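Appendix B. Chain record.
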Amino acid sequence: MRTLHGWERTSFVLLHVYVLGVCGVVLGAFTVQFLGKEIPCPLCILQRMAMLLAAVGPMFIINRSSIHGSDSKSDLSTGFGMSILAALVGLFISGRQVLLHIIPGDPGYGGTVFGFHLYTWAFTVFSTILLASGITLVMSRYMTISTHVGRPRVASRLTAWVLGLVIAANAISVFFESGTTWFLPDDPTNYELIEEFNEFRRHRAAERLRHVSEGQLNLGTDDRLGFIDPEDSEVSVDQPVDSRTP
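Structure tokens predicted for this chain:
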């Protein structure tokens, strides 16, 4: 089994750094979202998706490097081509959001990190991805990854798991934000799924209260469920007696 030397080793390590770096950026956005309590807008969600798609390209190259007979040059072009396309989409989305708040005096959307809003940082990240991917393709003769080499298998699997978990976390976050509807609000203030669940609980509680007031629920069942305190209820057990005996 051959070992990696020179550019082959460096390029293989850089692929992992590329994927983990993009995941780190998205995790930073999660930190602002949950610790800073800033719910992302639809444009922010799309930028996260574009970043993760840009990370799929290098992950594709890492995965293909373990397949016997794969064409490393073709895989390199395909992987970084995917990254360039995703970065172009993300650059357009983040640029649009920057232009939406470019008027002097506009406070922008959300808070800032080191003086810049997240969509401005996203524009910078996508520009960096484009630059790195372009340089990689230009230097592709030095960035070739050989197959069946002594690669760090544990590191590759760990990188794939990190990327998969970040993608899943992003999908779950979007689901909580959108709820059971197909559209995200332009200026979200809460998580729709939680609001829908709370509304469902309030509706069920109101229904139970209405049934209790109408006397349609069994008292014994309510007592066992804890809806009615037996000390607060007065129930007459006297029943009319038929004076006629057989």
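Further analysis of this model is presented in Appendix C.
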